[in-house]
Amino acid sequence: MPSYAVIGASRGIGLEFVRQLAARPDTVVFAVVRNASKSTYLQAVAKDAKNIHKAAERVSEVTGGKLDYLIHNAARVEAETLSKGFDDYPSIDELDADFTTSFKVNGLGVIHSIAAFLPLLRAGPTKKIVVISTAGADPKTVRASGFAGGPGYAVSKAAGLLATIKWALKLQDEGFVVVAVNPGLVDSSGTSGEYSACQPLPTFFKKTGVRLEPETPEQSVAAQLKLIDGLKPSDNGLFLEHTGGEYGL
């Protein structure tokens, strides 16, 4: 019975991971969120599913001290700052505050998440860690887009991407497969309240002339799970596209 912990499962991609994984027979899913009582969409999904657990501390109890897959999806992205450049902040203090908060979630969050679940992952036979990243963390993509907005998000997600690679190198001799995955452009507005992942796109289109068609969470996660199911040792340390293959190649 494979076990999965999904970090950042209250909405969007993380919520869809929980929904699709719970629909598989003989799986155990741990949905890790900051505030379970306020995660109304997760509550609705978990209501009739006996294999979804919403308390991280129950992982060891339920699985006998083991975990097969860690999927780290938690991230900070604020619609109002995604279109801002460095000099669009009212003050340098506000820029610093935005960058610092983003780094704590998008950079350090990856490090802390893996460290917290590592003993359980080491005890399990599968040893798979997947960090949901973004094309916006890739320097070549950023240069090609010509889009200077959202530096706090991009810089902090780039830190998270490098942290993932560092973990991959640290754990490679223990049989782990640690990867980052670009989920594609996903419209998560259906479960994200006031924020939509696609809200900044009009500004992006205006500045770059590039048109992008977003996927639904269902489409993106279905592709990601197919990728995750097929992970092999040679994938360790790679930044993968959700549809397969290494990102940017």
Average pLDDT confidence is: 89
Q: CATH top level? A: Alpha Beta
Number of discrete domains: 1
Which word captures the global form?
Answer: globular
Structural classification:
alpha/beta
Task: Report the CATH topology name.
Answer: Rossmann fold
Count up the helices: 10
**In angstroms, what is the radius of gyration?**
18 Å
SSE sequence, one letter per element: EHEHEHEHHHEHHEHHE
Question: Could you describe the largest sheet, including whether it forms a barrel?
Answer: 7 strands, parallel
Could you give the order of strands across the largest sheet?
A: 3-2-1-4-5-6-7
Number of strands: 7
Strand content: 5-15%
- Poorly predicted regions are 202-206
Helix content: 40-55%
CATH superfamily: NAD(P)-binding Rossmann-like Domain
CATH architecture: 3-Layer(aba) Sandwich
What does this structure look like?
- This protein is of the alpha/beta class and 249 residues long.
- It has a single domain, classed as NAD(P)-binding Rossmann-like Domain (Rossmann fold, 3-Layer(aba) Sandwich), CATH 3.40.50.720.
- Helix content is 43%, strand content 12%.
- It has helices spanning 12-22, 40-46, 59-63, 79-82, 92-106, 108-123, 139-145, 151-171, 201-208, 217-229; strands at 3-7, 28-32, 52-53, 69-72, 128-132, 177-182, 239-241.
- Helix 1 packs across helix 10 (217-229).
- The longest helix has 21 residues, at 151-171.
- The protein is globular.
